Amino acid sequence: MSKKSFFKPFFFFLLVLYFAGPPINTFAETTAPPVLEEEAVSFYSDRFIFRGKDIDDLIMVVFVFERGREESRYFGQFFGAVFEKNHWSLLEGNDRYPYRPEALALIQPSYYANAKGTRTSGFVLGYDGGDFTIKMSSGAVEAFYTPSDGETIKNDIGISEAVVTLHGKDYWGDLIHESLIWNKFNSLTRHRHLYKSYQGFYLKSDSGMQIHFHQNKADREAFFKETQLTETLQSEGGAILLNKKIIYTFDPPIMISELDKKTPPFSVYKVPSRWHVETTSDIGELLLWTRGETAMNWLVGGYHLMAIEGLAKNGEKEERVWGFAEYFP
């Protein structure tokens, strides 16, 4: 992996003993009872992306709760970011913390963030640290797309209507919940062949289309050789959902053209900032560009979060699209 986490937060602070905490029934659970045997599971991740419905006053919030086992030690890791007023802010507390070993399937609170609920009941997420006090609440989460469903990897995406309270004001939109369970692999540890030129998009259109697609150019065979595993994440794929029905599937190869790239400060790699994405004549094409981004940069790598704006064009018909994207060099 490019850095120490599936989502690459990299500033880790001194770990302290963690004895106190809320009762176990206040923890959020993963998508469903794990199909994989608990003793064999090394890594869980639950990512929550709130995407506001007002494109002109766009609010987005990203929470990631990861947890893994390294030999006999258990760790959680939180990452959070907020996009408001065309600006990204990384939340405080983006670091590892000691984890109670009762069950990795449970999202135990980090220093500043917590999650309660299930996909069936809906989620309630909270954060209180630094300049931000945040609450997110969703309805029941409905399955949308399953990137990976193998013997050792379970990765799926669901969507629900949600509301976020930020600076005392309520914003309505969608909550995307992406769950990853990985057997015999701990993604808290760095693996340099997991990603290469990875880009993933989580978008919505004026007509209500939910659009997700991703592309990863990593060397799968090099990853298998490095880790001695037989499965890894899906290289590319995605879907478009409208009125709770899949109307298009992004089958490989996804035709993504990078129209413009920028070099981040103090880096030797480039990051795309404008795209053209082809689909079929029934769906049309996507023209996308960044509206604001932030990053954790290294000389030869990093993790980039982007607010995306654009157009879905089908002949003379156009509609606006907006949402979240991420990029790993």
Could you walk me through the main structural features you see in this protein, from its secondary elements to its overall organization?
Helix content is 2%, strand content 56%. It has one helix at 220-227; strands at residues 28-29, 41-52, 60-70, 73-84, 87-90, 96-98, 106-107, 113-118, 122-129, 132-138, 142-149, 153-166, 169-183, 198-205, 210-215, 236-242, 245-249, 256-262, 271-278, 285-297, 302-314, 317-328. A hairpin with a 4-residue loop joins strand 14 and strand 15 (210-215). The termini are close together. It has 329 residues and is mostly beta strands. The protein is globular, with a radius of gyration of 19 Å. The chain has one domain (24-328). It has one helix and 22 strands. The strands form three sheets. Strands 2, 3, 4, 5, 6, 8, 9, 10, 11, 12 and 13 form an eleven-stranded antiparallel sheet that branches. The protein has a nine-stranded antiparallel sheet with strand order 17-16-15-14-22-21-20-19-18, with no helix packed on it.
Short description, anyone?
This protein has one helix at 220-227; strands at 28-29, 41-52, 60-70, 73-84, 87-90, 96-98, 106-107, 113-118, 122-129, 132-138, 142-149, 153-166, 169-183, 198-205, 210-215, 236-242, 245-249, 256-262, 271-278, 285-297, 302-314, 317-328. It is mainly β and 329 residues long.
